């Protein structure tokens, strides 16, 4: 579905942010990219989305090179406050994706409603982003991305700005969503436990320059549970195995 | 009850000021030729309203003011969007706009009269000329200020340039555009009245100038009240419009 | 690069005038009005008019500053008084300064005072508002110190309130200075036979379009220079603090 083929990104001659990244994301797979700060995981995600130019190698989506941003590769940003239109309501923001797809206004309401329900936003449909908590704003962004009906959902540290409890709620919501709708997800995080908790596969990146350190298949039963899964001995094994890649 | 205390106190203070004015005029502490009491000013205003003498000049003043201001809004926003779209156009045009902003708008009256003659169209043109610069500069600033993250979102969603301007840049620029509009509406009133006074075109301004020459000070004060009210009303209306359109802003 | 547009406009103006598309009576042409301007500068008329305009504006700024800072300080120190005065301020402030021209004509006739009075009204409000909020924003600790030291009201204003509020007040004065010039020129155009505004009017009425445009250009340059100078001054002042 989505491939990085010996992908390298450099800014100028000196700054090699990513070197020879090579992996494939299969359909319906939930892949997590984890690594220390500055290892280039956000750059990698943006390169896959067509937002950052690739210096060497390629990113391929369904076999074709990714030449620029496209609605099929929806990206959920960490700074949700800046990714939502402050002058539109919750419903209006979700509608933006429908407008982008050229769906006539008459059909908007009946497409937005299920999304609102799914994310518990139905009571807040007429509110503006400034009136919502961080967690709710992030839900709106995710809802908008889903309204794009993308083939791949790219998520860039989406829960990094949220408090621990909201983070856990949203982790479970995204995990459930991904499985129910059989979504293909590439999820970037600096939180190793989050990566293992959510992913079918975890790709650990090392820094300077960014490169793949290790890829681990996570064989933990689904649906995952915040308490149960995190105390599973295999979870702890994965953690031990990957922890060294996070150290600087 | 407490909630009404300060508004009432404010009203009492204002009333006290008016009473002091009246007493001073009666006691001849201030020259009553120049400062007739508030009672005479309001009486004259009432007379204007009752005889209908107010409406035509007021109507003319209001129409010129709004026609010029609206023209400036449309031109200012459209040009601002165009100029903001590339750094080359900005470097070319923004300095000229910045240079023209401190120019007193009334200063273009003599050339305008010379070229366009004494007419409504001339006044509307001068008002528009005076109003356009703050709106233009506000629009340029506003259109540039779109959050880069939102720009990325617009690209990711594959919107056309036209859709991007309408759905992203224009709403984002509105706060700055409104700031320019607030400044210009004040300019619009001033320039309209000044134009009427200079060009002797029928309107509230001309009415007051004629009264000054005939030493009719009650008329002058009635005119001041009308213009003060006009200034207040236009400000309040614009404020309400801004509150409605920009109600999404963080309080 | 900012001069490309103005220079092109002037060039186009010159060409259109020479080929007869722009009537010379009203539009004149750049070569003509620049020459007229140079002449008016040389024989002193422009400078004399500038001095007249500036003296009226300066008088206005002085009067409005004294009144604005004085009343603003009192309102800033005594919140109840400020709240009581709210309606009066809100009723008087929206009055456009030009509305006072007929009254000022009645009282002062054609004179420097006529222009200065109207401009002073316009300048008073920004200074009042800025001073009130600057004084109100003063650290309450400072006020307590003043009362503990037994300062009279006047001393509290002069020694504590005003010095602490000065940066905020300076911004108000800068805004007011710009307003002073604009309003003064406006009064001269509309009625007062002195200063640059009158110079433009006179030139227009005597069909000397070149002198009129030259004066307008001069007004633009002077206005821009004053604005620029005040911004530099303010930045230097803020930097020193």
CATH architecture of chain C: Orthogonal Bundle
Within CATH, the superfamily of chain C carries the name MetI-like
Helix and strand succession of chain A? Answer: EEEHEEEHHHHEHEHEEHH
Class derived from helix and strand content of chain C: mainly alpha
The CATH topology of chain C is given as MetI-like fold
According to DSSP, the number of beta strands of chain A is: 10
- The secondary structure category of chain A is alpha/beta
Quaternary state of this entry equals heterotrimer
The proportion of strand residues of chain A reads: 25-35%
Account of the protein in words:
The complex is a heterotrimer of chains A (248), B (251) and C (241). Chain A is built from nine helices and ten strands. Chain A has 248 residues and is of the alpha/beta class. In chain A, strands 6-7-8-3-9-10 form a six-stranded mixed beta sheet, with helices on both faces. A four-stranded antiparallel beta sheet of chain A has the order 2-1-4-5, with helices on one face. In chain A, helix 7 packs across helix 9. Chain A is globular, with a radius of gyration of 18 Å. In chain A, 42% of the residues are buried. Chain B has 251 residues and is an all-alpha fold. In chain B, 81% of the residues lie in helices and 0% in strands. Chain B contains ten helices and no strands. Chain B is globular. The model of chain B has no long low-confidence stretch (mean pLDDT 90). Chain C is built from eleven helices and no strands. The relative contact order of chain C is 0.14. Chain C is elongated, with a radius of gyration of 22 Å. By secondary structure, chain C is mainly α.
List the helices and strands and how they pair.
The complex is a heterotrimer of chains A (248), B (251) and C (241).
Chain A: E1 2-11, E2 15-25, E3 30-34, H1 41-49, E4 56-61, E5 64-65, E6 73-76, H2 80-83, H3 90-100, H4 108-118, H5 134-147, E7 152-156, H6 164-180, E8 184-189, H7 192-198, E9 201-206, E10 211-217, H8 228-231, H9 233-246
Parallel strand pairs in A: 3-8, 3-9, 6-7, 7-8
Antiparallel strand pairs in A: 1-2, 1-4, 4-5, 9-10
Helix pairs in contact in A: 3-4, 3-5, 4-5, 7-9
Chain B: H1 2-26, H2 38-51, H3 55-84, H4 87-100, H5 109-116, H6 120-144, H7 148-156, H8 161-199, H9 204-213, H10 217-245
Helix pairs in contact in B: 2-10, 3-6, 3-8, 4-6, 5-6, 6-8, 8-9, 8-10, 9-10
Chain C: H1 4-18, H2 24-27, H3 30-42, H4 45-77, H5 79-92, H6 101-108, H7 112-136, H8 140-148, H9 153-190, H10 195-205, H11 209-240
Helix pairs in contact in C: 3-11, 4-5, 4-7, 4-9, 4-10, 6-7, 7-9, 9-10, 9-11, 10-11
């Amino acid at each position: 579905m989505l491939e990085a083929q010996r992908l390298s990104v450099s800014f100028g001659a000196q700054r090699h942010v990513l070197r020879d990244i090579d992996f494939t994301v299969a359909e319906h797979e939930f892949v997590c990219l984890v690594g220390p700060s500055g290892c280039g995981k956000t750059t990698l995600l943006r390169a896959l989305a067509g937002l950052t130019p690739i210096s060497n190698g390629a990113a391929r989506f369904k076999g074709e090179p990714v030449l620029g941003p496209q609605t099929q590769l929806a990206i959920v940003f960490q700074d949700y406050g800046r990714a939502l239109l402050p002058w539109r309501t919750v419903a209006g923001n979700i509608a933006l994706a429908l407008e982008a797809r050229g769906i006539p206004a008459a059909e908007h309401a009946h497409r937005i409603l299920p999304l609102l329900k799914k994310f518990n936003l139905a009571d807040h449909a007429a509110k503006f982003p400034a009136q919502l908590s961080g967690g709710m704003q992030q839900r709106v962004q995710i809802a908008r991305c889903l309204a794009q009906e993308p083939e791949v959902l790219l998520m860039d540290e989406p829960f990094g700005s949220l408090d621990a409890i909201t983070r856990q709620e949203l982790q479970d919501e995204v995990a459930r969503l991904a499985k129910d709708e059989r979504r293909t997800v590439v999820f970037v995080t600096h939180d190793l436990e989050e990566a293992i908790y959510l992913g079918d596969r975890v790709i650990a990146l090392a820094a300077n320059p960014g490169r793949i350190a290790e890829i681990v298949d996570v064989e933990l039963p689904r649906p995952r549970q915040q308490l149960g899964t995190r105390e599973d001995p295999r979870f702890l094994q994965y953690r031990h195995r990957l922890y060294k890649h996070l150290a600087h | 009850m407490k909630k009404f205390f300060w508004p009432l106190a404010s009203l009492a203070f204002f009333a006290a000021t008016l009473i002091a004015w009246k007493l001073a005029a009666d006691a001849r502490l201030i020259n009553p030729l120049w400062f007739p009491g508030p009672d005479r000013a309001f009486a004259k205003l009432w007379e204007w309203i009752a005889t209908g003498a107010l409406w035509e000049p007021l109507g003319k003043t209001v129409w010129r003011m709004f026609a010029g201001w609206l023209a400036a809004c449309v031109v200012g926003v459209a040009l601002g969007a165009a100029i903001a779209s590339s750094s080359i156009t900005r470097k070319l045009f923004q300095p000229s706009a910045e240079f023209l902003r401190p120019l007193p708008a009334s200063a273009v009256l003599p050339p305008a009269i010379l070229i366009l003659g004494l007419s409504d169209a001339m006044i509307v043109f001068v008002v528009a000329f005076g109003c356009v610069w703050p709106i233009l500069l506000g629009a340029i600033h506003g259109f540039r200020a779109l959050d880069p993250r939102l720009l990325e979102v617009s690209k990711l969603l594959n919107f056309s340039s036209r859709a991007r301007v309408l759905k992203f840049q224009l709403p984002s620029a509105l706060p700055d555009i409104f700031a320019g509009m607030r400044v210009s509406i004040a300019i619009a009133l001033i320039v309209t009245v000044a134009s009427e006074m200079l060009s002797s075109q029928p309107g509230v301004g001309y009415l007051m100038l004629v009264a000054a020459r005939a030493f009719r000070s009650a008329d002058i004060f009635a005119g001041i009240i009308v213009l003060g009210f006009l200034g207040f009303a236009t400000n309040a209306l614009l404020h309400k419009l801004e509150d409605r359109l920009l109600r999404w802003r963080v309080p | 690069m900012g001069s490309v547009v103005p220079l092109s406009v002037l060039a186009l103006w010159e060409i259109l005038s020479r080929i007869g598309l722009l009537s010379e009576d009203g539009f004149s042409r750049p070569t003509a009005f620049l020459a007229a301007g140079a002449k008016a500068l040389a024989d002193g008329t422009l400078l004399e008019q500038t001095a007249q305009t500036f003296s009226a504006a300066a008088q206005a700024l002085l009067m409005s500053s004294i009144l604005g800072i004085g009343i603003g300080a009192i309102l800033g120190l005594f919140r109840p008084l400020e709240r009581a005065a709210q309606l009066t301020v809100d009723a008087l402030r929206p009055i456009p300064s030009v509305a006072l021209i007929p009254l000022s004509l009645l009282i002062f006739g054609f004179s420097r005072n006529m222009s200065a009075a109207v401009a002073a009204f316009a300048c008073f409000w920004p200074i009042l508002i800025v001073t009130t909020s600057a004084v109100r924003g003063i650290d309450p600790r400072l006020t307590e110190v003043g009362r503990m030291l037994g300062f009279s009201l006047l001393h509290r204003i002069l020694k504590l309130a005003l010095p602490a509020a000065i940066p905020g007040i300076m911004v108000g004065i800068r805004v007011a200075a710009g307003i002073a010039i604009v309003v003064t020129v406006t009064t001269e155009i509309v009625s007062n036979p002195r200063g640059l505004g009158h110079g433009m009017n006179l030139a227009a009425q005597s069909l000397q379009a070149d002198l009129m445009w030259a004066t307008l250009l001069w007004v633009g340059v002077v206005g821009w220079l004053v604005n620029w100078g005040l911004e530099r001054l303010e930045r230097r002042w803020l930097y020193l603090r």
